[in-house]
């Protein structure tokens, strides 16, 4: 049986090479070469698992050669991506859309009990300008924001959740005046995904 499969595979490859070098008709699918048709006929007549695997492999090779596989020769669809990792262990409830861990200098987005983005590095308020802990809601979003309190300092992708405190793009290596600073990819993701009314938990 194994030698038969090997001969069929060799015949299939030879047929596909012939298809690749031939000039097909402009408006019609190219006819299967004799060697390929033999593989199709023999594999289609078999019900054994080994020949089922051969049919799948033949279908993939036919597709790569620009030939629509016959019924029963369609390769299986790709495996679905793995589910996101669970949310980090924290006091942040499942009802929160965004979580901020001040002690861990990290923040993430979640949907129910599943992590949807992050955790990512962030910085928060310095001494005297501490970021308040608690449960809040997103109040507004301003893509090209500046701080009127601090000399029009840029605050791109600002997502406000309590008073004048917001998530926004900034250097996470330096403490802020209360806002949550993140690098640009994270700030942009928060801006796009968080909506007015979403719950933010700072702990």
Automatic annotation (TrEMBL):
L,D-TPase catalytic domain segment(s): 96-203
GO terms, biological process: cell wall organization; peptidoglycan-protein cross-linking; regulation of cell shape
Source domain of life: Bacteria
Active site residues per record: 168 (proton donor/acceptor), 179 (nucleophile)
Region (Disordered): 62-96
GO cellular component assignments: extracellular region
Associated pathway: Cell wall biogenesis; peptidoglycan biosynthesis
Pfam family, one: YkuD
UniProt cross-references to InterPro entries, sorted A to Z: LD-transpeptidase, LD_TPept_cat_dom, Transpep_catalytic_dom
GO function term, MF aspect, one: transferase activity
Ranges of Pro residues composition bias in the record: 68-91
Signal peptide region: 1-28
Keywords: Cell shape, Cell wall biogenesis/degradation, Peptidoglycan synthesis, Signal, Transferase
Keyword Ribonucleoprotein in annotation: no
Protein name (record): Peptidase
């Amino acid at each position: 049986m194994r030698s038969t499969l090997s001969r069929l595979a060799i015949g299939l490859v030879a047929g596909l090479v012939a298809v690749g070098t031939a000039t097909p008709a402009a408006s019609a699918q190219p006819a299967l070469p004799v060697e390929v048709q033999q593989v199709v006929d023999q594999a289609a007549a078999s019900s054994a698992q080994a020949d089922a695997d051969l049919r799948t492999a033949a279908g993939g090779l036919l597709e790569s050669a620009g030939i629509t596989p016959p019924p029963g020769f369609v390769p299986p669809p790709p495996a679905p991506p793995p589910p996101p990792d669970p949310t980090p262990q924290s006091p942040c409830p499942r009802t929160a859309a965004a979580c901020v861990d001040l002690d861990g200098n990290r923040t993430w987005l979640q949907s129910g009990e599943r992590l949807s983005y992050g955790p990512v590095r962030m910085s928060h308020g310095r001494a005297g300008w501490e970021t308040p802990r608690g449960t809040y809601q997103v109040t507004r979003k301003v893509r090209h924001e500046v701080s009127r309190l601090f000399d029009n300092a840029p605050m791109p992708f600002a997502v406000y959740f309590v008073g004048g405190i917001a998530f926004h793009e900034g250097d996470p290596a330096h403490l802020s005046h209360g806002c949550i600073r993140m690098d640009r990819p994270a700030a942009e993701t928060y801006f796009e995904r968080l909506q007015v009314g979403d719950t933010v938990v700072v702990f």
